[in-house]
Protein 1
Amino acid sequence: MFVRNAWYCAGWDYHVSQGRNALLARKIAGERVVLYRKPDGGLVCMEDRCCHRQAALSLGRKEGDCLRCMYHGIKFGPDGACVEIPGQTKIPHKARVRTFPVVEKNNWIWVWMGEPEQADESLICFAVGYDDPDWNIKTSEMHVDANYRLEVANLADLSHLAWVHQNTLGAGDPATVGAFTTIQDETTMLERGINTRYWIRNVPANAFLQHLFPPEARFDLHFDITMTVPCNWILHFRAFTAGSRTEGESDGELVADTYTCQTICPNDEHSVEYYFSWGASRTTDLPGLSDMLRETVEQAFLEDASVLEAQHARVMEKPQHPTIDIIHDAGAGKMFWVLDRLLQAEAKAEEEAALAGAGRSARAGAPAC
Amino acid sequence: MFVRNAWYCAGWDYHVSQGRNALLARKIAGERVVLYRKPDGGLVCMEDRCCHRQAALSLGRKEGDCLRCMYHGIKFGPDGACVEIPGQTKIPHKARVRTFPVVEKNNWIWVWMGEPEQADESLICFAVGYDDPDWNIKTSEMHVDANYRLEVANLADLSHLAWVHQNTLGAGDPATVGAFTTIQDETTMLERGINTRYWIRNVPANAFLQHLFPPEARFDLHFDITMTVPCNWILHFRAFTAGSRTEGESDGELVADTYTCQTICPNDEHSVEYYFSWGASRTTDLPGLSDMLRETVEQAFLEDASVLEAQHARVMEKPQHPTIDIIHDAGAGKMFWVLDRLLQAEAKAEEEAALAGAGRSARAGAPAC
Amino acid sequence: MFVRNAWYCAGWDYHVSQGRNALLARKIAGERVVLYRKPDGGLVCMEDRCCHRQAALSLGRKEGDCLRCMYHGIKFGPDGACVEIPGQTKIPHKARVRTFPVVEKNNWIWVWMGEPEQADESLICFAVGYDDPDWNIKTSEMHVDANYRLEVANLADLSHLAWVHQNTLGAGDPATVGAFTTIQDETTMLERGINTRYWIRNVPANAFLQHLFPPEARFDLHFDITMTVPCNWILHFRAFTAGSRTEGESDGELVADTYTCQTICPNDEHSVEYYFSWGASRTTDLPGLSDMLRETVEQAFLEDASVLEAQHARVMEKPQHPTIDIIHDAGAGKMFWVLDRLLQAEAKAEEEAALAGAGRSARAGAPAC
Ligand code: FES
Ligand code: FES
Ligand code: FES
């Protein structure tokens, strides 16, 4: 079950070039789509399924602004309407492929999977792209064979850094484990998600940073996370040398000011694509530092993938197995509350539309089935 | 759903040798069968499933005319009747494996999957085998992961040559595309299929032939296709230097007189085996020419396979997705009309047999269930 | 369908070491479990599924006697009870993972998949382990993609040695085939299985032994097999030079006195793990002899695997396909009688427990659903 009226990330902007055969096939929230660029650079996203006999349009041919199905040669405009059927002159009214609103923002490609007229660009999440001159952002991606709600729960709670990521994002020492698992955060509900902020003070560096500092070095770490549905997760992460304050902004020296922008696109109920980045501000960057951040987050997501894929297999086998809840489930609970409220609203709207349609049919004397 | 009372091709005759362990396992129209040759060369086709505990008879041992199951050693005659049960003398009446009528013709092996008494050899399609002295026929085969009806539709309309096969069987130039997609054919309905004939005149050579002629060379091409159910497709293809006539037989020079014989055997609803050939008449053959034809058709079928496998995945996902029809669907429509008429007749016969059986049981006082 | 109240073999004792990360994940009778050793060497077996969010405990961390889930850090004692939830002090009563009785005996690890209070160690089958000083036992293992009942039937009848194993355990010559398929055995029903004993006299050596003796050598072979549910199979196999007696103990020379101990653990309905050994007594052993026995049984089980996997595929396709029975099915019939009686008893006990529970709920006024 996926929210339809939402922007889903289809990848990085460089995944769709102006190449002769640059047709990007994706599966987004259960729907097969194909993306391509028109000669003016604008993106088109349409269902990857010809309206004639369901051939893959992603095996087709770009012709100017149009896409030609290379099975029997039907040509479609960027609005999905058929503009040519080789060998016949009449074009049936229904000869049309569904298209999806598509927007590029901060180097990500966003596709609206719901009603086109409801597509609201203000719902696209804030992010820092790799072309932002103030940041040295490095990008990557990963495929994970797990249901997307498991990913939401994973990202909505960072206590797992102490365990899953003990050798990368965590710190491996017992004191830090305590600091990571007894966080005092400030959480704000957003229209479509949550914002969470907290400090972890006077701790050793995260494992991936430790070799850059003397062992006795201590830091104040600040996390500012905005998570929105379907599964966008933007973290402003800052590390200061440990200061004297126990609340409010650290008075230590800012040694790393970084953004990591992450979005997860469900292919279907069994796998996701993960598009993510990490990088430092130009003022705190050093040669190789942002590359190290990218390597670190790749390593961490491989750690997550092994946990989540095993978890997914178990949940599939026993979806009704009893579970207990713990304190760290709160964030995930809020995200699921938002997701489920949207899902319910869409189910209700669909039901009402069906009823209205039946009413019209009944009034017109048409059979309701 | 497969027509039962039809001949299905189980492969080329050389797929079943006299070898000690030459037991060919196939799946035909959903049934597992095993084929072997008796010492006199005659073929046997039986269900690949021992009547004892369903072991694979294709893992068995040939013994003269017989086949021994190598699990517990039960031996079956070429008629499927059990002739030996090691360790016991009594052979139960039901100890028998189903056999299927099998015929070799034109180097193809044909199996009748329906009622043996209805097996009618005159229904085996005409073809030109590789042992025909008048033709230099080269053979090949391919596995495709697609439903067999998609293959029927593919072969029943050659307009796709202009698109799928633009670099092989098609010609790649816009003029030829037009010629390939606005064909005036003569179609005749046959008892179990269709015959289609047409000329494409004054066009460049097909892509696979172009390097053999000067660029300005033009040709008259003649197609004569007989397609029969389940999925046999025999094309007599001739290329003449472009002549002056605009109707009737070309008055150009016959430069290539060729036969390509193709048959597709459904394994089950999700894949097929393709057995095919192409070759020139001895009078128009040149060293290497028929090998080139075989290479060309192999290349073309790889092009089809990529289209059909993607299409199959999409149809499986959304079998009810709305589609539109175009002019080029006419040939497939005729083939499906034949297929579906046979399917309906078989469903009706089965129903009547069930009713008759129930009637007899009722009269005999036996329980009808 | 699996018997719950039975000991299933989880592998050889060396499959679970004292290693830092030695967490053995298995699937036994459809349940995922994880096994590890406590510092004192004792084994723990628990469900491989955290009670929080179903993460794999086999991806966790051993901490003394405990196992920590490395997703959110919940720690479980060897009894399955939660002993720590990082970040919170209250531990819910239901925070507990199922554990299974586990016993080591004769170098095999045995897990009881049913009610812990019914775990009866006297039901663990007799075997000869590799650490028995009187025998030179060599061990091995294999995965087979077949339902476990097919394995039971395979092991319960040795007439298949003449066919499946003609080049290994059988002898390949017609006389021996007769001897192997017309056995006069003595069978005794056991509480949970059968014991079968028989002589095969004055036959050539089994194929795997023939190169060690002159071609004219003849032997008396004695088989003493104890088979118990779920699928334990212990064979005391002895070879004597052919003696003069036609009944009772052979008066030939004992040239090989061997034990092969085999147990098959169903992972689920579609595959099994096979743990097995073979070896000679110290008094009849020779350098390399027991290694040869192990190689032979490995080779033979590869022969079985190819038969059983093909059979499994066919039975899955047509579970209701009619079959005939033969004389050699008797042993399997007895094993299935035992298995099915236990399955019925468990189904009945479960039903009664459900009824009793419903009764209690009704009396307490609680909703019965
Ligand atoms: S399937 Fe696209 S044109 Fe036929
Ligand atoms: S399964 Fe064929 S003889 Fe037993
Ligand atoms: S899933 Fe095990 S601690 Fe959360």
Protein 2
Amino acid sequence: MLTVDEALQLVGQHAAQLAPIRIRLRDALGLVLADEVTSDVDSPPYNKAMMDGFAVVASDRSPTRTIIESIMAGDVPRRPIRPGTTARVMTGAPLPDGATAVVPVEQTELVDDRTVRLEWIDPPPGKHIMPQGLSMSSGQCIAAAGRRIDSITMAVLAEAGAAVLSVVPRPTVSVLTTGNELVSVDERPAAGQIRNSNGPLLTSALCEGDYAPSVLPSGRDELDELVELAQQGLEADVLLVTGGVSAGVKDLVPAALAQAGVQQVFHKVALKPGKPLWFGIVPREHGPPRLVFGLPGNPVSGFVCFHLFVIPALAVLAGRADSVVLRLSKGTSMGEFAYGGGREMFRPAYVDAQQRVEIFPWHGSADLAGMVRANCLVRLSETGVELAAGDRLEYVRLPGINPGK
Amino acid sequence: MLTVDEALQLVGQHAAQLAPIRIRLRDALGLVLADEVTSDVDSPPYNKAMMDGFAVVASDRSPTRTIIESIMAGDVPRRPIRPGTTARVMTGAPLPDGATAVVPVEQTELVDDRTVRLEWIDPPPGKHIMPQGLSMSSGQCIAAAGRRIDSITMAVLAEAGAAVLSVVPRPTVSVLTTGNELVSVDERPAAGQIRNSNGPLLTSALCEGDYAPSVLPSGRDELDELVELAQQGLEADVLLVTGGVSAGVKDLVPAALAQAGVQQVFHKVALKPGKPLWFGIVPREHGPPRLVFGLPGNPVSGFVCFHLFVIPALAVLAGRADSVVLRLSKGTSMGEFAYGGGREMFRPAYVDAQQRVEIFPWHGSADLAGMVRANCLVRLSETGVELAAGDRLEYVRLPGINPGK
């Protein structure tokens, strides 16, 4: 059976950044720049007053000055400042020619409408002035290709006039849950039935990862129905199917996916929980292939596979990462814990701000309710592990998960 | 002038959790539960097979068994298992009465359609079975009031039948930028003009905090226009206004807000950058007052005030926090840095996974482009600070900000 690392490598061979698209800046939050962006303006665009006050010639020592105009942000100064004169300036206003410092209004006193007395007559040159182009200059690269657009970058791009951008699109992801036993949250399960938790789990986890899921109707264990739903799901860049990938006679998902044109890459990974994981692709003429993950129907197993395989693959499609790898963090164990080994295990646990990891009691892969305290998955080696308090360990963080209040 | 702590306390006196609403589970991601939720089902709802295999009486040692039925998830077993008989079971299937263990299919061999030979004849009782109700039982509290609904909680709530929930709503937030100098990202700034970066900055930062902003048209520095826009903005729980709060003659925002019915709570805080911060309220008959923040027009100053005051206030309204406080984290300085003091400063910086903080070169509050590397704000005392490499410091993390790739 493939190891987790071998399976990740196989996924990595088929996951590639999506072809760039051009979009408006307002739609770009969270996306990755496909090209570098240069500014078309200086910032500030002029020597700018950083305080409300009076624009002066710094070397002028006269205690009173004649006020020749008032300038606020948005105005254009009309007259230069010379010794003996001043202009009232508001924060953000452009400085008139000749002005080399700003005396804050708090350090001045109005004598009359046209005259001000300065309590501070020797401001150093440049005081309370931001020189033109200091923050960014026209033609300068202000954001490199590969940068993810967060709020600060968004503001800088707006200032720089990047109204339309070339970005890596957000991959589209379809979610198809399968199983005769599933009923919706609105329904009362009859004997043998359970409510569908995989749908809400995966769509929410996709939202937490800043991906936009589309949800297909839950599929029954009938080949024709599954083929049709899979075909619909394959309109997306990535299709997630849950259930029907174990060795049971009714595990029709691999057959349905094959019939829908999906080429199997692997089935089963030496992973606990999550062994039945299935992975395939649909080549496309342009761009990277569509990826299809057949996740175990057990919600915990599917969730572990989602965070170990799907999230790293989506990060590559979205341009957020260069390769499909686990982002392992290092922490220490809060207490004792033993794992007998067998398959490599990723066990739900809680990590605090000091990277201390608590491996809390949990009833195994069917215990979804027992996972609500988890915000990470601790890696436990297939050769077995005996942890003492303070021992080093590695874990994968679950992004977007906020245990407790 | 108020200190940052005093100003936070004043905001805290007016910020309170919004009144709960009832919504459907699918709309609840990221919201906080107003009431505890109990399950209406056992999970698993039956003794459940955890492997594909054969359900047996654990104490039965006969090497071959007669297959009396096949059971998959969603089925209801019809016949009890007795010594000498077995039922084929798929992962997730309910176990028939009498069955006390599952022998995995890999450890069996079919003799004919009705007979199976077991390679493992003495499984311990309970092997590969999840007992009914082990994960959660009917009537049990599965999520406490105050829990924020993440993907795992969402899945547990779905399984438990919580189709409609009582939650704290997401506060609504209006964003009103003001200033004659502002043009949109699509426009070429004329002399004296700059592009509006505050709008994209604050709306994006609200999205990063999982709040949903609504954006008003940018307001010119005209009292009547500002009053009208402020009144529109006051339909939201929180109104953010940028610009027009300095001491300049054209700083009309406090006057416009007063005319729109906002009661000033404070104006100016001993904070760098961010001194002009203005805060007021509009009492409501039911529920906590609407909050109004007049943020400095300088984008960096406004952004600092947003993360120090607005985000903690929104967290209280949304039920994510009990009080309006800074979430300070501890780290160490990567290099030397000196701050001469004056006002308490929150300076943009970069913190890595090991809590090491780099205070990088930055041209002050008008240098928005110089902030793109920031993912935190380092607190520097008003009495001045001299940091050496390795010295301890405190910082506020900027949630949602992902510097670099």
Protein 3
Amino acid sequence: MAAAEKDDARHREKMAKRKSAQDAEVSSKTVEKGLLIVHTGKGKGKSTAAWGLVLRALGRGKRIGVVQFGKGAWETGERKALETFGDRVVWHTLGEGFTWETQDRARDVAAAEKAWAQAKALLADPSFNLIVFDELNIALRYDHLPLADVVETLRNKRPDLHVVVTGRNAKPELIEAADLVTDMTPVKHHFAAGVKAQEGIEF
Amino acid sequence: MAAAEKDDARHREKMAKRKSAQDAEVSSKTVEKGLLIVHTGKGKGKSTAAWGLVLRALGRGKRIGVVQFGKGAWETGERKALETFGDRVVWHTLGEGFTWETQDRARDVAAAEKAWAQAKALLADPSFNLIVFDELNIALRYDHLPLADVVETLRNKRPDLHVVVTGRNAKPELIEAADLVTDMTPVKHHFAAGVKAQEGIEF
């Protein structure tokens, strides 16, 4: 057998083993479950990946709710694009922006409480399959909301409902309650090279 | 002054300082530039965050191209949802699936080369503002494509074009060429609890 043929045979064997391990792993997963998903970390992509999930769910005929706990002033590209899907996406922006924008703790707390009341209303509505609580981690980090109440409410969500929570510095109690947690870790950032936020990419 | 008022005053002062630092940082970023973005790491959200960027860009009136180097067989929710935007999204799935599915290296290389030819055609078309090369990192990792050619081509892209490359194990040479790199790091995964891939979340 020539060297190249041996290589090919070895490759086929290795890949066949991997495929069989992969297949066995996939078939061992049988539970259907609405997931509590957390996107945290200092890197880009936490909210962006949530919008990707919204898009994927829309393609599967699902209905989606969004409550934004921050960035209230921004009219973002993602929100505009999602208007295309009419009332299949219900979007509430109730945050007043980050706390260093408002410099008024009482106002921040009031805004977070209003957003959380809206969040609870969406959680109680059985028409939603996926709900995104964008930047909820920020409100929890600054103690604008009672952590125990939020975690308890998310633990008691409808079993088939998917919920995504975004924002850096996710609380350990929330991570403990979650099914899927990803840390978006910055490796390299263009701001360091003086490049500004780009339309269509960052807003 | 009462303790609560002192706390409020301290908070206002701290937040005012942070806001001024934040404002100064934002105004120091002046360069407009099409970004080369890499989503890598072992966690979830690499492709998903790319679809979030596509959605955001659509909301800003941009035109988007996608070449998928893997997962050819899957009819995904995100692709179906993006059909809503007509020819503003051009989508090519040219991968034949992961190499452990095919067990045939020559076929994998041929598929990657075909996908890369399509990628080059999109890069040469000035109508696109954002192009996603989904799972290109996998093709590079398995040496299905010549790394130097790919990196050189991406370095020489149109200056105002945004390109997103996804997939785990991004090559150091690609990270070096990129403007923005995020590592999606797994913290917790529901597969470990026997929960299977959920429609609308994972496909």
